[in-house]
Amino acid sequence: SLKMASDSPESLMTLCTDYCLRNLEGTLCYLLDNETLRLHPDIFLPSEICDKLVNEYVELVKTDSIFEPHESFFTLFSDPRSTRLARIHLREQIVQDQDLEAIRKQDLVELYLTNCEKLTAKSLQTLVSFSHTLISLSLFGCCNIFYEEENPGGCEDDCLVNPTRQVLVKDFTFEGFSRLRFLNLGRLIEGVNVETLLRPLASLAALDLSGIQLNDVGFLTQWKDSLVSLVLYNMDLSEEHIQVIAQLRKLRHLDISRDHLSSYYKFKLTRRVLNLFVENLVNLTSLDISGHTMLENCTIPSMEEKMGQTSIEPAKSSIAPFRGLKRPLQFLGLFETSLCRLTHIPAYKVSGDKNEEQVLNAIEAYTEHRPEITSRAINLLFDIARIERCSQLLRALQLVITALKCHKDDKNIQVTGSAALFYLTNSEYRMEQSVKLRRQVIQVVLNGMESYQEVTVQRNCCLTLCNFSIPEELEFQYRRVNELLLNILNQSRQDESIQRIAVHLCNALVCQVDNDHKEAVGKMGFVMTMLKLIQKKLADKTCDQVMEFSWSALWNITDETPDNCEMFLNYSGMKLFLECLKEFPEKQELHRNMLGLLGNVAEVKELRPQLMTSQFISVFSNLLESKADGIEVSYNACGVLSHIMFDGPEAWGICEPHRDEVVKRMWAAIQSWDINSRRNINYRSFEPILRLLPQGISPVSQHWATWALYNLVSVYPDKYCPLLIKEGGIPLLKDMIRMASARQETKEMAR
């Protein structure tokens, strides 16, 4: 089912929501006075649509860096007569007091505010307007919502020093929230009296008090007939707590887990405590005791363990107290406890660190509210993906993607998550992944690169991109990925390994793509960036992969793109070419890349005069004799000269070397090449070669062009014969055979 889920296209509802949010002005809204969004007066939307618009908006602002948040977005939902809201989930910095204030007339049933640190006590007052309809409320991590600003009276100067003092609100309670059943107060600020706050609530069904320290929880018994879910994550427990919990007989879900790294806990779990839970909480289907130290041995001696297949039957349980369960638990949290490694665990789903299944269950259960635990679980998944093979690949990928999206600013999750993605997307898993899933991976990788300048994250993200087919799979984010890579390469201090991977990616991205892509990337400063890298390497006198990739990238980006060729010349590219030639006379690969690039420059008629100097022409002529990289360097040098010769004798504005002498050397070079040479070059179009055929001004250029075509179509007929026919090469060759000025051997070859 997971395979199907990740493959199926987005629903029409999702596509429309996304489109409207990205084009609010063109769809649902108009701009008032050029700044405020207003809903068109004839629009009426039910809660099914409005909820989705709001929840997707929050998601987009959080996970899509290109998406621009709107100041007045929430005001679109201020009038329940035209827009209805019922269930909304808001997160983090996206939401402020005035946003909640804007929707106060709505009859909200469910309001989740997660880590909304900008909300203050003004929003507590706004909550009161939802009190008659609200059933579910989460204030998880809203650490300032119980603070109000108090303006100090008196002197003006003092106001400047300390404009606002934060004061804890003591008198707010849930009085009047008559329908409230589900409440999450996780990570509530210290100093708020939880008991007073909650006392007015008649019948709570679910309560989350994660990360709150309460010495006395006796007040919980007022809901012993209604409470079915209780979460006390990271609360330091005592015998009193346990006695109270044992009285909450309706509980189906109990979570007393903790982060064993966060602080010192006096409390230790014992066999007696677990027995107490099993005996008293007869409806229990889910229990989480992750992170706890067991004070005594709760395990059945291995001699008595029933051998054979692992079983979830309580009667066979390796954990003694759980033998008293009436049926297996739906979920049992044992992450970072010794119990998860036992053989028979009476639960359908177990979170732990024993194997892939347990680790994935942990990531799934803890991602939203416990990033500190999730990052350690993802780290375990990373080891599984690296050393063994993942058997639940799609689930693993989706969980890591969700964690990375959910915790964009959490360094630990970004580091471990990006590392896990590298192993989960490599080639052995390739077949199992849909286009949609692979695109989601690319999106979160680019998000990571954007928000984290941290070396490890940058390296992991770049390495992960190398697992994709480039440029095809990155085409849908082409601009963004190039901007991010150039940004990495333009940083003054650089990590060698990241630099190497980033240059390799840049090179791959401009290889075999359309000219408009190349022009766009050129305008982003690509040419300049590569020349700066070359300059740095020259100064260090090193010719490494970065140097070779940079020249190769320049060769690719100037292919049939005159603007980029011109940039190369304007930024002293020729000076660097000569210096590299002089500094690294033996580097064949380098010479080939540099001359390939100059071939592209020479194809641009307006730029050729800049190549017409004694120094350049001498260098090109001498390279005709080069044996570097087979015939490639000699071939490219001859190509550059062929284009220059094509401009005729009157364009030859230098005395030395003499034009006829260079022509002679060109004939000699072409005749020395083996016509069956296998090639290290890739033509997307023959147009620059074909334009040298119908002319009589330079027979040697005609010959070079004919030789090039003959070699390519005879060595690689499947690839190049169709290209030659498609681009109209046949009639051009036929015409040339009839030309008086063409040399006999050229005609033979053409025939």
TrEMBL record:
Pfam families: LRR_Zer-1, ZER1-like_2nd. Interacts with the ELOC-ELOB/Elongin BC complex. Part of an E3 ubiquitin ligase complex including ZER1, CUL2 and Elongin BC. This is Protein zer-1 homolog. Transmembrane segments: none annotated. It comes from the Eukaryota. The keyword Repeat applies. Residues 404-750 form the Protein zer-1 homolog-like C-terminal domain. GO terms for cellular component: Cul2-RING ubiquitin ligase complex. It comes from Oceanites oceanicus (Wilson's storm petrel). Keywords: Acetylation, Leucine-rich repeat, Repeat, Ubl conjugation pathway. Belongs to the zyg-11 family.
